[in-house]
Amino acid sequence: MKLIPVALLVVLLASASAAAAQVHERLSVIANGEKVGSVDAVRTGDRVAIHYDVKNNGRGPTMDEAIDLGPDGLPLRWTLDGKATFGGDVHERFARDDGIARWTDAMGARQAQVDGAALYIGQSASPWALGLYARALLKAPKNTLPALPGGQLHIDPLGPATIGTARYQAYAISGIDLSPDLILLDEQQALFAVLDTGGATVREGHEGDVPALSAIATRLTAQRYAALQQRFAHRVDAPVRIRNVRVFDPVSGKRGDPVSVVFADGRITGIQPLDAPASPGEALIDGAGGTLMPGLHDMHAHVSLESALLYLAAGVTSVRDMGNDNAFLPDLIHRIAAGEVAGPRITANGFLEGRSPYSARLGIVADSEAAALDAVRWYAARGHWQIKIYNSMNPAWVPAITREAHRLGMTVTGHIPAFTNADAMIGAGYDEVTHINQLMLGWVLDPKEDTRTPLRLTAMKRTATLDLRSPPVQRTIDLMASGRIAHDPTAVTLELLMGGRDGKPNPAVADYIDHLPIGLQRRRQQAIAPIANATDAAAYDGAMAKVKQVLKLLHDRGILLLPGTDDQTGLSVHRELQIYAEAGIPIPDVLRLATLAPEHYMGRDQQLGSIARGKLADFILLPGDPMRDLGELHRIAMVVKDGTLYFPSEIYPAFGVKPFAAAPKLALPKATAKAAGSGPAHDAMDEFLF
Predict the structure, then answer these.
(1) Please, which residues have CB within 8 angstroms of residue 165's CB and are 6 or more apart in sequence?
(2) CA–CA dist 473, 471 (Å, integer)
(3) φ/ψ (deg, to 5) at 619
(4) Residue 643: what pLDDT?
(5) Which end of the chain has fewer CB atoms surrounding its CB within 10 Å, N or C?
C-alpha cells in the first residue's frame, strides 16, 4: 500500500472540505416558454460568485458579480462587472466598513453613515439578489430594512405554493421598483423562482414548472390589483356634476369658458352653463377652474396587471397593446371589463415574429410562411385589431401576410424586419410603421446590416448628420403621404435609450424623477446606449434632434402620428407629447393626437375622444392649462373612465410614487352609497378631500 505524504493529505482534505462547503445554485430565465438566459451562483463560505447572462430579442445583460457577506447576511463587499442590456459597460462597487457604506454606480461615487442594518440594492444585480434581500428582510424587525442608496425594503408573506409535490413559500418584496417582486423560497430560504405572468426565473431542472409558476404569478398579482381596484375605484350611484371646468375641444383646439359637465351611468349627459342649477340627488365635484379633457391614449403598449392601473393614474384611458402573452391579454381585458381590476380600454394587436436566434419570445413565432398565415387567421378569429410584424420576420413572407390580414379585415403595422427598409414594407402592404428609429434606419443602413441586434438602436448615431432633403428620405415620406401610412414614433423610448448619461436624470423623466421610487430613479440616471466617448454622446444627442425634425416633417406632410411609448409607467405618454411640441408641432395639434385622433383611426370617435353629450364619460381633470404647458399633464387630479372615478393621489403611493396633484372635492348626495368594496357611504353633502 502506497502512503500519501502528510502535506499532500492536508491539501486533499482541505480541498474536499472546501468542495463540501460549496453551494451551487443554477437558475434558468424563461420567456414565452423558451430559455433565454441563466444565473449561475457559487457560494463558498461567505463569498458568492455569480454569472448572469440573458439574451432575449437580440439583447440582454451579461454580468459577473462577487459578494462578501457579513455575519448578519448583508453584503460587506459587492462588485458587478459586465455589459448592460444594450451593451453599456457596468462597473459597480459597494463596501461597508465601520458604519460607513460606500458605493459607486452609474450615478457616481457616494457614501452614507449606516447606523444598524441597511441593505444595499445592486443597481445591476442579477435575480439571485432577490433571495439575498428576502433572507435579510425575514430576519429584520417588521420585515423591513432601510435601503441604500435610499428608501426602504419590505417583504410580505403571501402563503404557501405547491409546485408538483414540493412546497414553497411565496413572498412579495416592495420598495425597489414600481411593483413588488414576487418570489418563491424553499424550506432553506434559498431562491427557487422569481415569478412573472409571462415567464419566470426558476431553479435549473424545473423549467417545466414555468406554466404553473406563471399561473401563480397571475393569481397573486390579480389578487393584489383586485384589492387595489376595490380601494381606488369610486363608483357613484347618482348623476355627477363637475362644476367650474374649462373643456378642451380637440376639434377646434381650444379651451372653452367655464361650464359644468354632468355624467351618469357611464355617459356624458350634459355640458351646461356654469350657473345652471343642479338637479336633486346629484353628486358634486369642484373643478376649481381647471381643464377637463378627453382621456389620453398610448398607441404602443404592452399591458400588464401592474401597468394597467398605472395607465389610469397617468390619465391614459385607452391603449393599443402591440404584443403580449396570448393567454394573459384576453384574460386581462375580461377582468377590466368586469370591473375586477382597474385598467384602460385595450385594443389588442396580434404579435407575429419570425424564427431566428434573435427572436422576441412574444405572441406567435412563425417558422414558415404557412405558419405565419395560420397565425394571422388565429389572431383574426379572436378579434385582434391589427397584425404587428417584428424584426426576425422573413421580408419575403410579408406580402402574403398583409394580403391575408387585409382579406380578413385587419391592417398591418410593425417593425421593419432585418435586411429590408420601410419603402419595401410599405410596398409589401404595411398600413403603418412603428418606432421612428425603424423608419429612419432605412436611410442610413447598408441592406446587409442586421437590425435584429442592438444595432437598431446604436446605428441611430448615424442619423445625426442626415440630410432630410435627400432623395431616400423624401421618397419614404412621399410613399407614406400618398399611401396614408400612419406612424407610431415612440419618440420617448428613443430619448430614453439615447439620452441616458451616467449620473444625470434621463431627459425622458427629468421633469418628475424625484417622484419615482429609488430603484427606478437609479435606472433613469444610467446610460442605456453604449457611450464610449464624447463623440458617441454628441452623435446620440444629434440623432435625437434629428428625430424631432422628422416628427415635424411627418406632421407637416399630413402623416398621422399615433402617440405611443413602448413603456409601462403611463407617465411616459406625457413626455412623448412634450417631445412633439418641442419638435414644433402646435400644442392644440399635439393634444388632438393624444385624444381624438386615435379614436378616429380606430373607428370609435362617435363614442370617445371628445367631451360631448351622449359620449362615454372618459376624461381627465387638470388643475391648470395644458395649452400653456404640456408639463401640466403630470398634474392630473382625477380620471374618469366609463363613469368610474379614480384619484391619482390615492393610486400613486401604492407604487412608491409621490403624487403630483391633490384630488378635487367631492360631495355625495344623501343616501347615496358607493358600490360595495369601493369605500364607505357618506352623509348628505359631506365634503371631503380624497
Answers:
(1) none
(2) 5
(3) -160, 175
(4) 96
(5) N
